[in-house]
Design a protein that fits this description.
The complex is a heterodimer.
Chain A lengths: L2 H7 L6 H9 L3 H13 L2 H4 L6 E7 L5 H14 L4 E7 L8 E3 L1 H4 L9 E7 L11 H11 L2 E7 L4 H8 L2 E6 L4 H9 L7 E4 L6 H16 L7 E3 L9 H14 L2 H28 L3 H9 L7 H12 L12
Parallel strand pairs in A: 1-5, 1-6, 2-4, 2-5, 6-7, 7-8
Helix pairs in contact in A: 2-7, 5-11, 12-13, 12-14
Chain B lengths: L3 E2 L4 H13 L4 E5 L2 H5 L22 H7 L9 E5 L4 H14 L8 E4 L4 H7 L6 H18 L3 E2 L2 E3 L1 H5 L4 H23 L3 H11 L1 E4 L5 H21 L13 E4 L13 H11 L10 E3 L12 H17 L13 H23 L7 H20 L34 H15 L2 H16 L5 H11 L3 H12 L17 H17 L4 E5 L8 H12 L3 E4 L6 H11 L3 E6 L4 H14 L7 E5 L3 H10 L3 E3 L6 H15 L5
Classes of the chains: A alpha/beta, B alpha/beta.
């Protein structure tokens, strides 16, 4: 057992920065260690699913995700839950670099050892997640009570975040029709919880909430909770949202969801590595998904990737050049 | 004539004021330290290193009494450079006057009381924009009826230019700001608005800037006067021409002053002074000139005297004041003014479209960062000449900076400890029940938007409430706030030089396995964020991942961020002169957070003697205003990371 793996399994929250430094590192040596760590933290090794609640929070820019997260983090901390936030920044990488500003927008107590925030650039990847986000969520859910993945976008980001989170909350602000249109058109998948932010806007927010509920009804998603919250003082709706997230998690078949997440994780990393050609060698994405679904459910992500590689019939030297 | 003064504690500043008054000074201009300006007590963690630094520390009514002891407030005109906590400091001033037997109605003076520029440039805000605007309106509405000879607000465009504003932006954002304030006051006055708006409008004055392009700068003032007059007439129905007059004071540009060949700054300051005095129709009411060595450190009394003499030569030796308006009828001037009025009009309309100055803070901040970035690129590429800096750099050794003090003032470090101890005594001796009651009333007034904050603040001043307690009570109600950094929207630049740098960043990133990640931090209460913003934007353009959280961070916040974010290098920026305390504190906090091996670089106004001490303490590199080539600085930083991770060259 690696030292890092032991620390995470012992619930040592201060291991989080080192875990992320490793998972984000693309050198061959670091990737070998990453595979080792993920195997050590897999359900087979742990004897069950990682106990943390992985919550995806996504929505268009300016919808109030960061202020909402400030309140949610405070709410979780108030009841004693440790929280890790993986903030994925969508900023374009024309120069390769990114300005990561989310940390500043999420209010938190910097002296609190049970709150961890890490910002990562999404890079050139579509779909909203940074390369290491899936692995980070899986690893941190072993030691943190709540792991939040914050992504920006609508119509796409919630799709990928849904692959990895136990519960996905989509945040929309009143008066922005996009999310509603995307939802109705089926471009956006129905989230587990729908949040209308800026409830302090009063009637505008209430009307937005009514519209969202109508859209959900028309899609047959009558059961999906839709809530209005205000993150500015006096904050409102936060307790209800926390409760809705909890309820979703309790009603969830966690093993099935996490199994799906691991398979999606393996396929995403494989596709990252070998590109379209690699996927074609597997008979296409759909075929690869079907094949993964027939694999042993106890396999860890690194083992699944190995299986995909073997099936593809390529060896390590054929790997695409991997940028950090 | 008066000088902007105040330092350390109330006792020492009182002695300074009384000396100045004895020499014939007729008014007071009080400079407060950053904790007082941002609503923190001297014992707050955020106040560390800043107590008594850039002005006097005033934590409660006892301090205000000491500060004004023996100064006849019924005959004094007092200017207070105070914004976020203006309502509180005015309350303390009113109560201190009351104790002297002077009624509020007799008081004369000015509170700067302009919050929007704090979000955009100066950084000493305390509350979110909406509630801040309410506090401003409360102060104005209160003074118009209770302290009628008080100038309740100085709308500041000065700081916008310091943040990089073009003349059009300076005019437009300042006027938009004034509109937001006037609209808020009109709402607060309710039924009395029609009767009082004229006097409210007439009491509003401006605090502007003047750069070295002094012809255009003069045109800017004429354009402002024209727009202000129109605004009064058309939007607020002010009929009295006197009340629509554009009144302003000025501090000329510090942004263009250089650290290299600092003696050249004297010429720049002189030319800038002409911008605000040449044409009689828009001549400044009050002029403050910076000292030649501002980019080096704190000016000494002799440096300030040298600046004062420049004003006296202009006023008493030249024929400047003997003529009518020398630009009347000038086609060139009229053309320039018309151009600026048009440009500013369009920009004012855009801000209005966004919902007014409060709603447009993000837009304006991003626009300023972008203008400043553009200006800096022009300096770097040689399109904009700065003599002695990017051109004509050869110089003889300067006798002015050869002295043992390096040509700057050195501040006493004892004050902070003394202030903390004095505050503990104050807290122990006051009536706790009265304080709790006053804070309860203050909180209730804050929560009820229909109430004015002033009566409860005055009662709190009497009860012995501290500056930090007053501000915390309001923070609890209004919520705390972090102003936009404006950096996210800055556009990316590309040139050959930068392309090379990007290649190097890619190479080093690939070798260490992760993209080079850089934390840019501003410890302490200093709000001067230009440097940090420009570094953050350029580092991003060079291909680094940059974590920038804006101003006002404690050393432990910076260290926690550095550790959690897994950055490879930390850059700290400080211009308030508190680097000697704060930088070692950050280094210690980094070690404690387990990130002691992360290299730290520092930028700011840092005298060479201090820079040596910082390097000694473990800082990898120190940059000052003479290091104007940002690409070179970023390359140094990347080299530092490469060396630390043993990446071969």
């Amino acid at each position: 057992m690696s030292d890092l793996g032991a620390r995470v399994r012992a619930g040592d929250l201060s291991a989080a920065p080192a875990v992320l430094n490793l998972l984000e590192n693309r050198t061959a040596a670091a990737r070998a260690k990453t595979a080792e760590l993920l195997a050590e933290l897999s359900p087979a090794a742990l004897g069950g699913e990682a106990p943390g609640h992985v919550v995806g929070v996504t929505g268009p820019p300016g919808s109030g995700k960061s202020t909402l997260l400030s309140r949610l983090v405070a709410g979780w901390r108030a009841r004693g839950d440790s929280v890790a936030v993986l903030a994925v920044d969508p900023s374009s990488r024309r120069s390769g670099g990114a300005l990561l500003g989310d940390r500043a927008r999420i209010e938190h107590d910097p002296a609190d050892p049970a709150t961890f925030i890490r910002s990562t650039a999404a890079g050139t990847r579509l779909g909203g997640l940074a390369p290491a986000t899936r692995a980070a969520a899986a690893a941190l859910a072993v030691c943190f009570d709540v792991v939040v993945i914050e992504t920006v976008g609508v119509g796409q980001s919630e799709t990928e975040v849904a692959d990895v989170a136990d519960t996905v909350a989509v945040v929309v602000q009143p008066g922005s029709g996009d999310a509603l249109q995307f939802l109705k058109a089926g471009i956006m998948e129905v989230p587990d919880v729908l949040v209308v932010s800026k409830a302090d806007l009063g009637r505008i927010a209430q009307r937005a909430l009514a519209d969202v509920r109508a859209a959900l009804r028309s899609l047959g998603a009558r059961e999906t909770p839709a809530l209005a919250v205000s993150s500015v003082p006096p904050a409102s709706g936060i307790e209800d949202l926390l409760a809705a997230l909890d309820e979703h998690r309790q009603a969830l078949d966690l093993r099935a969801r996490r199994l799906g997440a691991r398979r999606a994780h393996a396929l995403a990393d494989f596709a990252d590595e070998y590109g379209e050609r690699g996927l074609r060698a597997l008979g296409g994405r759909r075929e690869a998904e079907r094949w993964l679904a027939s694999c042993d459910p106890t396999l860890s992500v690194p083992s699944l990737i190995q299986l995909l590689e073997r099936r593809q019939g390529v060896d390590a030297p054929n790997r695409r050049h991997s940028a950090p | 004539m008066r000088t902007y003064a105040g330092h350390s504690d109330a006792q020492r500043s009182n002695e300074l004021y009384r000396r100045n008054l004895a020499k014939g000074q007729t008014g007071l201009s009080i400079a407060f330290d950053l904790p007082t300006q941002t609503g923190y007590d001297p014992d707050d963690e955020l106040a560390r290193g800043e107590v008594g630094k850039v002005g006097v520390s005033v934590a409660h009514i006892g301090d205000m009494r000491t500060l004004l002891h023996g100064i006849p407030l019924d005959r004094m005109n007092t200017s207070m450079t105070i914004n976020a906590t203006a309502a509180w400091l005015l309350a303390l001033y009113i109560v201190a006057a009351e104790d002297q037997g002077v009624a509020a109605a007799q008081l004369q003076g000015t509170t700067q009381n302009d919050i929007l520029k704090e979000y955009l440039s100066r950084g000493t805000y305390a509350f979110p924009p909406g509630p801040s605007l309410r506090l401003i309106a409360d102060v104005i509405a209160y003074t118009v009826t209770h302290v009628p000879r008080w100038n309740p607000i100085n709308v500041c465009s000065y700081h916008l230019q310091e943040a990089g504003a073009t003349p059009v932006q300076e005019i437009a954002f300042a006027i938009s700001n004034a509109i937001a304030v006037l609209d808020a006051v009109r709402d607060r006055l309710g039924d009395r608005a029609p009767e009082l708006m004229g006097s409210v409008f007439g009491r509003i004055s401006f605090f502007v800037n003047a750069g070295v392009r002094f012809i255009e700068e003069h045109a800017k003032l004429r354009a402002m006067a024209q727009l202000w007059d129109e605004l009064g007439r058309e939007r607020y129905g002010v009929t009295d021409e006197q009340q629509r007059r554009f009144r302003y004071g000025v501090q000329v540009n510090s942004l263009g002053l250089t650290e290299s060949q600092p003696e050249n700054n004297v010429y720049r300051i002189c030319l800038e002074a002409l911008a605000v005095t040449l044409g009689r129709d828009v001549r400044a009411r009050a002029v403050q000139l910076p000292a030649w060595n501002e980019a080096l450190g704190l000016p000494r009394p002799w440096d300030q005297q040298w600046s004062l003499r420049l004003q006296q030569i202009l006023a008493y030796e030249t024929d400047l004041l003997e003529y009518g308006d020398i630009f009347a009828g000038s086609h060139v001037m009229e053309g320039l003014v018309a151009e600026l009025v048009d440009g500013a009009g369009a920009e004012i309309a855009r801000v209005a479209e966004l919902g007014g100055a409060v709603e447009a803070v993000d837009y304006m901040k991003a626009a300023l960062v972008e203008s400043h970035r553009e200006r800096w690129r022009r300096i770097e590429t040689g399109k904009l000449t700065v003599v002695g800096m990017n051109r004509f750099q050869e110089t003889e050794p300067s006798p002015l900076t050869a002295g043992s003090d390096g040509g700057i003032l050195v501040v006493d470090q004892q004050v902070e400890r003394e202030r903390r101890e004095a505050l503990a005594v104050w807290r122990a001796e006051r009536d706790d029940a009265a304080v709790a009651d006053a804070l309860g009333q203050l909180g209730a007034a804050a929560r009820d938007d229909s109430q004015s904050i002033m009566p409860a603040s005055i009662a709190a001043a009497r009860a012995g409430v501290t500056t930090g307690e007053w501000a915390q009570t309001l923070r609890d109600t209004f919520g705390s706030y972090r102003a936009p950094t404006g950096v996210g929207e800055a556009s990316a630049v590309t040139d050959a030089d930068l392309e090379e740098l990007r290649d190097e960043v890619e190479r080093v990133s690939a070798a260490i396995g992760r993209r080079v990640k850089f934390l840019v931090g501003k410890p302490g209460l200093d709000g001067h964020s230009n440097g940090a913003e420009q570094i953050a934007v350029r580092a991003r353009d060079a291909g680094l991942d940059v974590v920038y959280q804006g101003i006002r961070l404690t050393p432990s916040q910076i260290a926690t961020s550095a550790a959690q974010e897994g950055v490879h290098v930390v850059g700290l920026s400080i211009l308030s002169g508190s680097h000697a305390e704060l930088i070692p504190a950050v280094l210690a906090a980094l070690r404690e957070a387990g990130a002691g091996d992360v290299p730290v670089v520092v930028g700011g106004i840092i005298p060479e003697a201090d820079a040596a001490a910082l390097r000694e303490a473990g800082v990898a590199a120190v940059y000052t205003p003479k290091d104007w080539d940002l690409n070179r600085m970023i390359r140094d930083i990347v080299d530092l990371v490469a060396a630390r991770y043993s990446v071969p060259a």
